[in-house]
Amino acid sequence: MRNLEIQDGLAVPVGQQEPTTFLRKAIENGHSAFLLYGPRHIGKHTLALYLAAMLNCCEANNPCGQCMSCRRILKGVFADVKTAGIETAEKGGEEIAKTGISTEQVKDIIESAAVAPYEGKTKVFIIDGAEYMSLPAANRLLKTLEEHQNYVYFILLAENADIILPTISSRLSKVEVKEAAEEDIKEYLISLGTDKETAQILAAMADGKTGWAVLAMQNADMVQERQDFAKKALDITAYPLSKRLALAGELNKMFVKDRQSLYCLLDIWQNIYRDMLAASLGQDVLVRNSQLVQNIKEAAMLLGSARITAFLQSLARSKKLLKQNVASLLTLEALMLSL
Fold first, then answer.
1. Which terminus of the chain, N or C, has less C-beta within 10 A?
2. pTM of the model
3. Domains along the chain?
4. What are the tens digits of pLDDT across the range 113-136?
5. Rounded CA separation 292/130 (Å)
6. For 132-148, how does the pLDDT look when each residue is reduced to its tens digit (9 = 90+)?
């Protein structure tokens, strides 16, 4: 499990003590359908598995992390905990991502929900990327959300709660999964065997996303990609309009090929421009990308706080529009025009 430790009782996902407490109380009060939302790699799936373990652990101090149910759930091999997400398909010999969660996937969930648990106390269905559920799929799920057996639980995961269909959203208990503290991520990485210096660097780069830090610990390419995206965020401050519009075309090609990579880039840009805003206001102590602090201060001086603020607002708006499948090239061109 990526950001859980098995101890005397399963450790709470890093930085998620408050959501975990809320979920436990919600279950005690009879809630059975949840929406966990927050940025990619923030720990939504980890928290969902923690909840699934809580629901199926047989020990009083649940989830214990030691029993067969807990261990199988955390390994992803427990028959009564199923995850559905955006599928992939082959086209021209290449694997491509589909654009949404299909009615066939929801049909499988509904059929499985009608059958009693096989090896646990409850059946838990995790729907990852719930904002990409097609309208027919959402309508099909709706009735099951309203009426299901008392041993069935649904956990929907999304980056943005605002773009979940209202008919679905209104039937879910919502939990925001927030960024973990940098020091907590650092200590967790050290507990996994990372040296202190590397743990400090990765924790600072993670922007509160424990999942990213753990993956980056095992994959140097992720660190390089983040550095490249951060450099591009600074470079575009000096681009003429023609070059920014050309970049919009390049970003659109990225979006068509791999949406998640573009979302990652935009997340990093937001992080860099938040640092630039802090620097423009004389709050250097709030700059999180300390290794780029001089570059950030120079870019902030060039743009000024008003332009930085406007671009941050445009970044947030563009991310939302892209996830709503609004014309991607036009959205990205408008983003570049806003700088």
1. C
2. 0.78
3. 6-176 (3.40.50.300), 219-337 (1.20.272)
4. 999 999 999 999 999 989 888 888
5. 35
6. 888 888 899 998 998 89
